[in-house]
Design goal:
There is one protein chain. With about 170 residues, the protein is α/β, with parallel strands linked by helices. It is about 40% helix and about 15% strand. It contains six helices and five strands; from the N terminus they run αββαβαβαβαα. Strands 1-3-2-4-5 form a five-stranded mixed beta sheet, with helices on both faces. Helix 4 links the parallel strand 4 and strand 5. The longest helix has 18 residues. About 30% of the residues are buried.
């Protein structure tokens, strides 16, 4: 992506991890700027994640959801702008139940971009997981993940509750 960013017209922002993270790619995949990648197929909901930190957590969360009988697709939105609206539209239409995950403020971030697009084009329930409206903290990445409630173990109960509510009300 760094090489593609060098030739992309306009501004580019790349976030780098603070520590080595779990690998989700083997190294031989072709990753294209602006094109999301399906990491795991699923039919009940789609977890759309962004970043070196949250994509591995999304995979772990999908594993925990599978234990509850929830088949969650996991899609890596490594590029937020341009947002891959084609893939977003596909998963919203297929599942009608979207979860976004980011280690960023939920307002004005990836989840906001997803909700904005869907609100204007294909109204779909969206659970946005990220940092709620609070001041930043200082600490190790592991500490911050726990403090902000962003680990798969902390996120999974929220997703299960959301999914069950969507099914109960016919929203998802």
């Amino acid at each position: 992506l760094l090489e593609q960013a060098a030739y992309h017209p306009g501004c580019v922002y790349i976030r780098m991890p603070r520590k080595p993270e779990q690998r989700v790619y083997q190294g031989d995949e072709h990753i294209t700027l602006g094109k999301a990648n399906l990491l795991r197929d699923g039919s009940d909901m789609a977890i759309l994640a962004t970043g070196f930190v949250m994509v591995p957590e999304a995979i772990k969360a999908a594993d925990l959801l599978a234990r509850e009988g929830i088949r969650a697709a996991v899609v890596d939105f490594h590029t937020i702008k341009p947002l891959d609206t084609q893939v977003l539209h596909h998963w919203a239409k297929r599942t009608n139940c979207i979860v976004t995950m980011e280690n960023h403020q939920v307002s004005g971030g990836f989840g906001g971009a997803v909700a904005e697009y869907l609100g204007q084009n294909l109204p779909t329930p969206v659970l946005r997981i990220g940092i709620e409206d609070r001041f930043g903290q200082v600490g190790s990445q592991d500490y911050l993940m726990r403090d902000y409630g962003l680990t798969a173990e902390q996120i999974s109960p929220r997703i299960i509750k959301y999914y069950r509510e969507m099914k109960r009300t016919g929203g998802g």
